[in-house]
């Protein structure tokens, strides 16, 4: 569209009432330095934050017409909130960043430069990460899983601070499932990806909102929504256990024929039963995870639900 902004910045918001004013001020300064005054929009998606984040968004949107406020009816999670922002964005380029100022807005210029060079997507790679140790370890595990499940290029860090072309965003928002994983959707669309190095900043105030439960949920979402690899692992385990069971059966028969007086090994029998039962339970649970997600998608479980808007027209509500 002729009146579309050059840049949309999408920020999912949760427990950030004290940070938002500074975030808006810093973004405004950087956009002015880039010569994008009047040519950008900042979309703040309030993911049913329990603090006064929505009231702060209303104040900021009233004072700055380029601030767009989106209030979700309940907490849907970071990736769902981001999808809500992407659906309502209209910029030729779209940047996704966190609300805690650990992602420096000054890096947006480099992100846009990479896109203008022809790349579809540009990720950021953090120097001197300020995350807790468990989160760094979890991030490495996430990287390992994504490489194997999503065929992620080796060395690409799937940062939550990234920029995309409008064409990529248009493809991503076609996904209407209830459990989106932004990076999985990006990797489904394109491999034209660049990276830039940035300094990871200290969180402006408060503690991070992501915890171990969120990380496990993200891994399950990645595994069961964007890959059938876990089902193939389950099939391989089934074949392997069947083969081992046949070998054990042959060994038992041969042993009984050679040594008729040998006593039955009840401990080994019970151990084998428990082991196979545990594997079967794991496999059934994995299959159930896939079936459950399929059931929820078929029943059109909403990806997000917009309750309130300010300075933006509602183009989508699910």
TrEMBL record:
It comes from the Bacteria. Its EC number is 2.4.-.-. CDD domains: DPM1_like_bac. The keyword Membrane applies. Residues 8-172 form the Glycosyltransferase 2-like domain. The chain crosses the membrane at residues 229-254, 266-287. It holds the Pfam family Glycos_transf_2. It is an enzyme of class 2 (transferase). Gene3D superfamilies: Spore Coat Polysaccharide Biosynthesis Protein SpsA, Chain A (3.90.550.10). GO terms for molecular function: glycosyltransferase activity. Keywords: Cell membrane, Glycosyltransferase, Lipopolysaccharide biosynthesis, Membrane, Transferase, Transmembrane, Transmembrane helix. The keyword Plastid does not apply. PANTHER family: UNDECAPRENYL-PHOSPHATE 4-DEOXY-4-FORMAMIDO-L-ARABINOSE TRANSFERASE, UNDECAPRENYL-PHOSPHATE 4-DEOXY-4-FORMAMIDO-L-ARABINOSE TRANSFERASE-RELATED. This is Glycosyltransferase family 2 protein. It comes from Actomonas aquatica.
């Amino acid at each position: 569209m002729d009146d579309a902004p050059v840049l949309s910045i999408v920020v999912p918001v949760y427990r950030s009432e004290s940070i938002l004013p500074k975030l808006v001020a810093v973004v405004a300064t950087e956009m002015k330095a880039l010569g994008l005054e009047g040519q950008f929009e900042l979309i703040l998606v309030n993911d049913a934050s329990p603090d006064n984040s929505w009231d702060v968004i209303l104040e900021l949107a009233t004072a700055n017409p380029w601030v767009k406020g989106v209030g979700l009816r309940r907490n849907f999670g970071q990736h769902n909130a981001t999808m809500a922002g992407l659906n309502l964005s209209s910029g030729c380029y779209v940047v996704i960043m966190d609300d805690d100022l650990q992602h420096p807005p000054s890096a947006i210029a480099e992100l846009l430069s990479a896109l203008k060079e022809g790349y579809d997507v540009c990720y950021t790679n953090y120097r001197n990460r300020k995350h807790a140790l468990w989160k760094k370890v979890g991030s490495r595990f996430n990287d390992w899983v994504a490489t194997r499940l999503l065929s992620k290029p080796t060395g690409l860090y799937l940062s939550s601070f990234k920029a995309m072309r409008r064409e990529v965003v248009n493809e991503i928002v076609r996904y209407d499932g209830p459990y989106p994983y932004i990076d999985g959707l990006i990797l489904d669309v394109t491999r034209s990806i660049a990276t830039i190095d940035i300094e990871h900043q200290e969180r402006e105030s408060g503690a991070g909102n992501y915890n171990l439960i969120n990380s496990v949920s993200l891994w399950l979402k990645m595994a069961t929504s964007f890959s059938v690899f876990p089902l193939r692992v389950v099939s391989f385990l089934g074949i392997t256990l069947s083969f081992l069971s046949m070998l054990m059966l042959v060994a038992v028969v041969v042993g009984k024929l050679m040594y008729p007086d040998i006593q039955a090994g009840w401990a080994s029998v019970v151990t084998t039963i428990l082991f196979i039962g545990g594997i079967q339970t794991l496999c059934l649970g994995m299959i159930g995870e896939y079936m459950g997600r399929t059931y929820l998608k078929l029943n059109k479980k909403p990806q997000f639900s917009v309750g309130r808007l300010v300075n933006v027209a509602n183009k989508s509500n699910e």
